[in-house]
Amino acid sequence: MGGIGKLTLAKALSSHISYKFDATCFIDDLKVCSLQERQDILKHTQKTKKILIVVDDVKNMSQFNILLDIDLFKDDDGSKLITTSCT
Question: Coiled-coil stretches, from where to where (predicted)?
């Protein structure tokens, strides 16, 4: 449901814990093609850094599945993913 503060909460949480990470990334207006293009960058970064990624407005399962396909979140390197969804 739009307008209930999901993004505000995600931003506040990421701001509160960002000091624990080497890098943070905020992705809004998520499109499947743009995320697929960013996978190589994310995979390269995750090899050297502990990162926090905040993704706003995941609209469907295909977008979420692309996020989960990134090896970044399959091991315990300390990287984290925060997502908000409109569904």
Answer: none
This prediction's pTM = 0.72
Host domain of residue 65: 6-85
| Domain count along the chain | 1
Q: How far apart are the first and last CA of the chain?
A: 7
Low-confidence ranges of the chain (pLDDT < 70): 1-2, 29-39, 46, 67-76, 87
Within a domain: residue 69? yes
The answer to whether residues 84 and 7 touch, using CB atoms and an 8 Å cutoff, is: yes
Q: How does DSSP classify residue 70? A: S
Asked if the structure places residue 63 within a domain, the reply is: yes
Rounded (10°) CA dihedral 67, 43, 36, 5: 40
Question: Does residue 1 sit within a domain?
Answer: no
